[in-house]
Amino acid sequence: MDDQPSAVPARTIWLMAATAGIVVANNYYNQPLLNDLAGTFAVTDDAASWISSLTQTGYALGLLFILPLGDQVDRRKLISVMLVLSAAMLLLFSQARNFPLLLAAGFSIGLTSIVPQILPPIVSQIVPPSSAPQAVGHVMGGLLLGIVLSRFVGGWLGALIGWRLVFALAALVMLALMVVLRRALPALKPAHGGSYLNLLSSLPKLLHRYARLRLLSLAAALQFGAFSLFWSTLTFHLADMPGHYSSKMAGSFALVGAIGVIGAMSAARITKRFSLRTVLVLSGALMAAAFPLFAAAHESLFWMVPAVVILDLGMQMSHVSSMANILVLDRGAASRLNTVYMVTRFAGGALGTVIGGLAWAHGGWLAVCAAGGLLCLVALVVNGRTGVAPAGG
């Protein structure tokens, strides 16, 4: 491939954006279906929450151990392998007949569904530098929309055709994507000539070198923990309310969260007008304000809609702004910086899911809201320090 990027058809960028959304959805189909899964396998709500937790843990480990390979092997081949493995794990999940196998399949789905994080470096490599920010923004928008719509699709399809068919259909979609992307994406030369161990060993060095990376990653972990805590327990809360709402209702609330995509798309423009610290504090305050509203929705759905809107809006504004600032710390190590940030963030998401399950089991919905609000407040303090901390050091 020529070293200079040439014109790339717009449909290729949109295909990559769609791919990011479709593949990341694998990690979230289970969340509005946890109540159904608990019923199928006759386990407690607390035990069922481990499905989501292990999926997030698998995703975090995939980001840590597989994502760095994007600098060492042909990314197109890596994507093909990951999509085939994702299809196999989704099919295994759909056919699981015992709970331990379901947990193992859920973990493996997360481990292999890292394609959305392989795509941004490809975009920056195949488009002219002047077009790269907008193109990467499209891919990120697709990813965020996929997260939102996955809960809606999972909840509604699960109610219509059952959770097993939801995951079986997702497996078929992965195979179809593999065929399409194999033809649409160019073969790309690896960017890193060192060993795999050297690649991994550089990750903690980056974390030690950049104070801003440490602070933004910690805040992201806390915020995504609160975010995951809410979504992984919502289905239990809705089923426990006087209306005994189904997974379909949980999916509907996920659709409301699509407003967060607007926040992600506007984050770059807002950051140009205000300081990073201002944007992070504003977005963090929105997230923290959501949980008192969730608590007010203990017996009624009235406050739930505005709370979901501001939670997603704050979450995505903070995430996009943080990532944009992290990737420019060292352009030569952008993929590894992304690995450190995303691994920390999704580890926080996995921990948040566990905390949510424990809070629900021991204190119900109000305990969940208290735990989520506390995580957001700590993240707000951390983000307040980000603007005054040096980038390095």
TrEMBL record:
Coiled-coil ranges (or none): none
Signal peptide region: none
Residue ranges of the TM segments: 12-29, 49-66, 78-96, 102-123, 135-154, 160-181, 215-237, 249-267, 279-297, 303-328, 340-359, 365-382
Domain Major facilitator superfamily (MFS) profile positions: 1-387
Family matches, as PROSITE patterns: MFS (PS50850)
Gene Ontology molecular function: transmembrane transporter activity
Alphabetized UniProt keyword annotations: Membrane, Transmembrane, Transmembrane helix
Top-level division of the source organism's lineage: Bacteria
Pfam families, sorted: MFS_1
Protein name, as recorded: MFS transporter
The species this protein was found in: Ancylobacter mangrovi
